[in-house]
Write a structure and sequence with these properties.
Helix content: 40-55%
Number of helices: 11
Largest sheet: 7 strands, mixed
Radius of gyration: 19 Å
Oligomer: single chain
Order of helices and strands: EEEHEHEHEHEHEEEHHEHHHH
Bound molecules: nicotinamide-adenine-dinucleotide, magnesium ion
Strand order of the largest sheet: 2-3-10-7-6-4-5
Number of strands: 11
């Protein structure tokens, strides 16, 4: 399939250079009122060192298992262990980096580690990493001893704006992605926007596609902000806060995806198909979703539900942010 004319090839613009976390900004806190348990998402720069103050008082003194991967652990593990150590005993556990470790065999290995460390029902599982670690550690937290407390410290843009909020946790099977999982809400989420400075630009761009998704789902303020600032400089604190508010609002109204939460799948129909037919090797998830968003907008346009101007605006914004489309 091909897109016509201008849509044929949307070239990547490196985003890392014009995405910044603002050193002076305040801590933004968003309450997620989930029926099965409410929690606070803290967003801002340099929050890792302040974990002791940001996590709920009820965690004080509890034994914590910090699950991370070798990449993120090398960058931020020490800092997080130190900060968590001020509120209770911490045991770091690292797994190799990669989506293929979001699996039952890794979960089984983690259960054994937790048992060996004597983590009981009063313990806490803390996830430090991107969506892979968040989903996997969350799945372990949901199932170990029939469920223990869970904290998310998301370190990718995608995890900060999407995966860490809403309580969906899962592992992949050989037969497909996310086939075994649960709804298990965290007791707290801490999104330190400063850690995004070490994220590869491609990962940052992929996360931005989910941000554009929230704008298109009706966050006109975010839409205007992106349109005005994408060319020059986007403040990641603003972008992450707005996205978290949007996702929080949607999941709070529909915790188990019985209805409205499905709007979050905008761009995901074609996106998932592209990921599948390319064996999950060619596109990052967000990149496939970006293409899916263009496709959904094209369909709306063909059905005369969307104007030429709006279609062009969407494509322009995605291009500015760094979407590249060239389909076989
Ligand atoms: P990821 O977790 O694989 O992280 C991407 C890469 O960035 C990895 O190599 C990771 O080690 C590295 N990384 C992470 N933080 C870094 C940092 N601060 N600096 C440098 N490198 C860093 O990928 P992702 O895109 O974050 O997450 C994808 C996963 O999330 C998928 O498994 C998907 O199914 C899941 N997901 C879940 C939900 C949900 O609601 N639960 C929603 C969306 C996606
Ligand atoms: Mg997605």
């Amino acid at each position: 399939m091909t897109f016509g004319g201008d849509l044929q090839r949307i070239q990547a613009v490196p985003t890392a250079t014009n995405l910044r976390s603002n050193r002076m900004s305040r801590i933004r806190q968003i309450r997620v009122p989930a029926p099965s348990g409410s929690y606070t998402v803290s967003v801002g720069p340099d929050l890792l060192g302040q974990l002791g103050q940001l996590l709920p008082e009820s965690l004080r003194g509890r034994k914590m298992a910090l699950i991370t991967n070798d990449t993120v652990g090398a960058l931020y593990g020490k800092k997080v262990v130190e900060a968590l150590g001020r509120i209770g005993p911490v045991r770091p556990i690292s797994i190799p980096d990669g989506e293929r470790y979001k699996s039952m065999p890794t979960a089984t290995r983690l259960y054994a580690d937790l048992i060996r460390d004597g983590l009981d029902r009063s313990g806490v599982v803390v996830a430090l990493g991107g969506g892979v670690i968040g989903d996997l550690a969350g799945f372990v937290a949901a199932t170990y001893l029939r469920g223990v407390r869970f904290v998310q410290i998301p370190t990718t843009l995608l995890a900060q704006v999407d995966a860490s909020i809403g309580g969906k946790v899962a592992v992949n099977l050989r037969e497909g992605k996310n086939l075994v999982g649960a709804f298990h809400q965290p007791v707290a989420v801490v999104a330190d926007t400063r850690v995004l400075s070490t994220l590869p630009p491609r990962q940052l761009g992929a996360g931005m596609m989910e941000v554009v998704k929230y704008a298109l789902l009706g966050d006109l303020h975010l839409w205007d902000y992106l349109k005005t600032h994408a060319k020059h400089r986007l403040d990641l604190d603003v972008v992450v806060e707005a996205s978290v508010r949007d996702k929080a609002r949607i999941v709070a109204a529909d915790e188990r995806e019985a209805g409205h939460r499905r709007v979050l799948n905008l761009g995901h129909t074609l996106g998932h198909a592209l990921e599948t037919v390319t064996g999950y090797r060619r596109y990052l998830h967000g990149e496939a979703v970006g293409i899916g968003i263009v496709f959904a907008n094209l369909v709306a346009h063909r059905m005369r539900r969307q104007s030429n101007e709006h279609l062009a605006e969407v494509v322009d914004l995605l291009r500015l942010i760094g979407l590249e489309i060239s389909l076989p």
